[in-house]
């Protein structure tokens, strides 16, 4: 594989020593972890798979002939590790919202769902969005391709089509380069790519999730008002921040809500479950996010409760994805949020 986008470091003989290999892991770890996350839809699986990628690369370092780039070689190992991991697990993809389930009204009664949910990704783990710009053949901007909506959309694809779309449309690799990585011909890669794009068009009229505006001072103010509304239990202030058609989903629960009234009716049933809330700002999938701690009526300790991913648009919140217990608190450590 030649001319893969991003930093290219030719590798020749003699075989890399440990120090040189460690430098490579530092240089490529974040982008490979993000690639594994997009493939798997899981932050925790991405951690395991990038570790597995470097272990396999270290063991096979003598087999690399030096004619391509180290980066391409590592992507080959990582992608194939992901494909093998998907084949070995019970479900081929993770979801952000249960397919075909209509929006709910009132109290959530279903309880945690036995489904495999898409996890958020901390911005602190993202590769540099300037140095990591995709190649000229990419169809998606780097920031667009880290959004929850995008990662959720590509989870609909069969694993090989998912890999092809990521390599070609996100990283900007050619069909020839992708064929060298995945095996098969350039024609088979192009065929898989066309099928993947057609599947995305079925869900998104333009073949992609709606592109939102980039971060701005108004986004920072919106985040502050959101955090304040939670900490003061200001329901009117919270609802005012939402767009009229906003959506509210809360993995791992099945229920999801759409529109200010439906969201308000639900929030009224749950805000009194705790004596209060405290918030810590963070970022996930290129969006503002908040870690929310709750104080139990019988306790004096603020404990992790939920991780909120906020999707703003035109000064309002268009989508809230709130990871509630038991999934939410399990994510706090990955986002650098304290345990209490």
TrEMBL record:
<feature type="domain" description="RNA polymerase sigma factor 70 region 4 type 2">
    <location>
        <begin position="149"/>
        <end position="200"/>
    </location>
</feature>
<keyword id="KW-0804">Transcription</keyword>
<comment type="subunit">
    <text>Interacts transiently with the RNA polymerase catalytic core formed by RpoA, RpoB, RpoC and RpoZ (2 alpha, 1 beta, 1 beta' and 1 omega subunit) to form the RNA polymerase holoenzyme that can initiate transcription.</text>
</comment>
<feature type="domain" description="SnoaL-like">
    <location>
        <begin position="224"/>
        <end position="319"/>
    </location>
</feature>
<dbReference type="InterPro" id="IPR039425">
    <property type="entry name" value="RNA_pol_sigma-70-like"/>
</dbReference>
<dbReference type="Pfam" id="PF12680">
    <property type="entry name" value="SnoaL_2"/>
</dbReference>
<dbReference type="InterPro" id="IPR007627">
    <property type="entry name" value="RNA_pol_sigma70_r2"/>
</dbReference>
<dbReference type="InterPro" id="IPR014305">
    <property type="entry name" value="RNA_pol_sigma-G_actinobac"/>
</dbReference>
<keyword id="KW-0805">Transcription regulation</keyword>
<dbReference type="Pfam" id="PF08281">
    <property type="entry name" value="Sigma70_r4_2"/>
</dbReference>
<feature type="domain" description="RNA polymerase sigma-70 region 2">
    <location>
        <begin position="27"/>
        <end position="90"/>
    </location>
</feature>
<dbReference type="GO" id="GO:0006352">
    <property type="term" value="P:DNA-templated transcription initiation"/>
</dbReference>
<dbReference type="Pfam" id="PF04542">
    <property type="entry name" value="Sigma70_r2"/>
</dbReference>
<protein>
    <submittedName>
        <fullName>ECF RNA polymerase sigma factor SigG</fullName>
    </submittedName>
</protein>
<dbReference type="InterPro" id="IPR013249">
    <property type="entry name" value="RNA_pol_sigma70_r4_t2"/>
</dbReference>
<dbReference type="InterPro" id="IPR014284">
    <property type="entry name" value="RNA_pol_sigma-70_dom"/>
</dbReference>
<keyword id="KW-0731">Sigma factor</keyword>
<dbReference type="InterPro" id="IPR013325">
    <property type="entry name" value="RNA_pol_sigma_r2"/>
</dbReference>
<dbReference type="InterPro" id="IPR032710">
    <property type="entry name" value="NTF2-like_dom_sf"/>
</dbReference>
<dbReference type="GO" id="GO:0003677">
    <property type="term" value="F:DNA binding"/>
</dbReference>
<dbReference type="GO" id="GO:0016987">
    <property type="term" value="F:sigma factor activity"/>
</dbReference>
<dbReference type="InterPro" id="IPR037401">
    <property type="entry name" value="SnoaL-like"/>
</dbReference>
<comment type="similarity">
    <text>Belongs to the sigma-70 factor family. ECF subfamily.</text>
</comment>
<dbReference type="InterPro" id="IPR036388">
    <property type="entry name" value="WH-like_DNA-bd_sf"/>
</dbReference>
<dbReference type="InterPro" id="IPR013324">
    <property type="entry name" value="RNA_pol_sigma_r3/r4-like"/>
</dbReference>
């Amino acid at each position: 594989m030649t001319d893969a986008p991003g930093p290219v470091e030719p590798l020749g003989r003699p075989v890399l020593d440990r120090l040189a290999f460690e430098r490579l892991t530092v240089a490529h770890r974040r982008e490979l972890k993000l690639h594994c996350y997009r493939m798997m839809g899981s932050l925790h699986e991405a951690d395991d798979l990038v570790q597995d990628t470097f272990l396999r690369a270290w063991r096979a370092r003598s087999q690399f002939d030096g004619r391509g780039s180290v980066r391409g070689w590592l992507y080959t190992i990582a992608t194939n590790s992901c494909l093998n991991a998907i084949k070995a697990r019970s479900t081929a993809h993770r979801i952000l919202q249960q397919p075909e389930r209509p929006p709910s009204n009132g109290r959530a009664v279903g309880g945690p769902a036995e489904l495999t949910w898409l996890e958020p990704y901390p911005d602190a783990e993202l590769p540099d969005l300037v140095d990591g710009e995709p190649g000229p053949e990419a169809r998606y901007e780097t920031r667009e391709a880290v959004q929850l909506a995008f990662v959720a959309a590509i989870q609909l694809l069969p694993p090989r089509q998912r890999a092809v779309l990521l390599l070609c449309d996100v990283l900007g690799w050619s069909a020839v380069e992708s064929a060298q990585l995945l095996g098969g011909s350039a024609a088979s890669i192009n065929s898989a790519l066309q099928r993947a794009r057609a599947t995305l068009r079925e869900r998104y009229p333009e073949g992609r999730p709606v592109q939102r505006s980039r971060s701005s001072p108004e986004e920072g103010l919106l985040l502050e008002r959101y955090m304040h509304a939670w900490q003061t239990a200001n329901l009117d202030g919270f609802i005012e921040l939402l767009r009229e058609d906003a959506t509210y989903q809360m993995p791992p629960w099945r229920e999801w809500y759409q529109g200010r009234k439906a969201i308000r009716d639900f929030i009224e049933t749950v805000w009194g479950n705790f004596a209060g809330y405290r918030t810590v700002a963070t970022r996930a999938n290129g969006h503002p996010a908040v870690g929310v701690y709750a104080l139990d009526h019988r306790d004096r300790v603020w404990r992790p409760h939920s991780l909120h991913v906020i999707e703003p648009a035109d000064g309002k919140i268009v989508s809230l994805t709130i990871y509630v217990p038991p999934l939410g608190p399990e994510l706090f450590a990955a986002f650098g949020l304290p345990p209490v």
